[in-house]
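A reminder from the course coordinator: this example appears on the midterm review sheet, so study it carefully.

Given structure:
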């Protein structure tokens, strides 16, 4: 396997529960060493998709290919690691004991098990807390142990469900540092998250699902170009209410214009168009209090595609 080769490929996956069609021909691929964010509102089919990949749910049709080979609906998934959103640890056991137990669940024994436990403690930064019971850990520490338990067997594909829910910013950063180390070793990561900033800053590509289908997929730049375009949104506040509209500025419910101090517009070329717009404001006798220029983001793309607020699953 080489870079740009699919570690995981989903082809036309379909799943129904009775008359309810939950997955409607989902197709995408996850490359070796790549981290993809899987986004979607409630009912998009994300959970069902992950369950199908893990073998917890049998799809009606379609294929799941792992490292280029089709795998059965159940079994044959030793190369997949799953870290659920819910903390799946034995609270009355220590971090070291939890890691040893989960290592055995994955078939590790003897010196290999000991080596992987030592690796996991160092990887999570919890070597000094190895003998402490997990129940005494903070949420971030539990998350780190939870992730480590899912990768002890060195999976080539890791499925992560909301790995940073309820953790502080420092633990969040530590988790993504841990994941970065895995990627450097060639692990491919499929991350479901409701934090758009995480998807935008941490992932190579985005897959957005809605109503059981893939609504769009690609890099941030590709998704922006495909959907909302590259226009910048400009918002200005002047020092006194407008008496008359000003050419080039839009007036709508969020920027009513006359009688308001707020002006908005959209521009394709900030360097060329913004100075002209500012000149028109000052020529009309108004002083500028502040100007904001916002580039289109994943948030705009998501709302454009799904029409929903991003919500908890």
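Designed residues:
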């Amino acid at each position: 396997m080489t870079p740009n080769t699919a570690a995981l490929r989903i082809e036309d996956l379909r799943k129904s529960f009775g008359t309810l069609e939950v997955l409607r021909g989902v197709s995408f691929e996850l490359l070796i060493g790549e981290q993809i964010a899987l986004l979607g509102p409630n009912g998009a089919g994300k959970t069902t998709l992950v369950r199908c990949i893990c073998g917890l749910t049998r799809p009606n049709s379609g294929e799941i290919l792992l490292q280029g080979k089709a795998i059965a609906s159940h079994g044959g998934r030793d190369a997949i690691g799953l870290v659920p959103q819910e903390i799946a640890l034995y609270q009355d056991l220590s971090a070291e004991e939890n890691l040893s137990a989960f290592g055995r669940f994955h078939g590790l024994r003897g010196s290999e098990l000991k080596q992987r436990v030592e690796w996991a403690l160092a990887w999570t930064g919890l070597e000094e807390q190895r003998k402490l019971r997990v129940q005494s850990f903070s949420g971030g520490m539990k998350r780190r142990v939870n992730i480590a338990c899912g990768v002890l067997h060195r999976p080539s594909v890791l499925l992560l469900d909301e790995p940073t829910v309820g953790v502080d910013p420092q633990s969040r950063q530590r988790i993504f540092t841990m994941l970065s180390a895995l990627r450097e070793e060639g692990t491919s990561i499929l991350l479901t998250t409701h934090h758009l900033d995480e998807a935008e800053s941490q992932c190579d590509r985005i897959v957005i699902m809605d109503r059981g289908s893939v609504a769009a997929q690609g890099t941030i730049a590709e998704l922006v170009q495909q959907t909302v375009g590259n226009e910048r949104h400009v918002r200005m506040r002047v020092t006194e209410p407008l008496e008359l509209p000003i050419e080039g500025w839009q007036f709508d419910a969020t920027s009513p214009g006359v009688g308001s101090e707020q002006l908005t517009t959209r521009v394709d070329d900030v360097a060329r168009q913004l100075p002209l717009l500012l000149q028109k404001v000052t020529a009309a006798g108004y002083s500028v209090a502040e100007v904001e220029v916002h580039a289109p983001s994943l948030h705009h793309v998501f709302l454009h595609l799904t029409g929903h607020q991003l919500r908890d699953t």
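The chain has a mean pLDDT of 89. DSSP finds nine helices and 13 strands in the chain.
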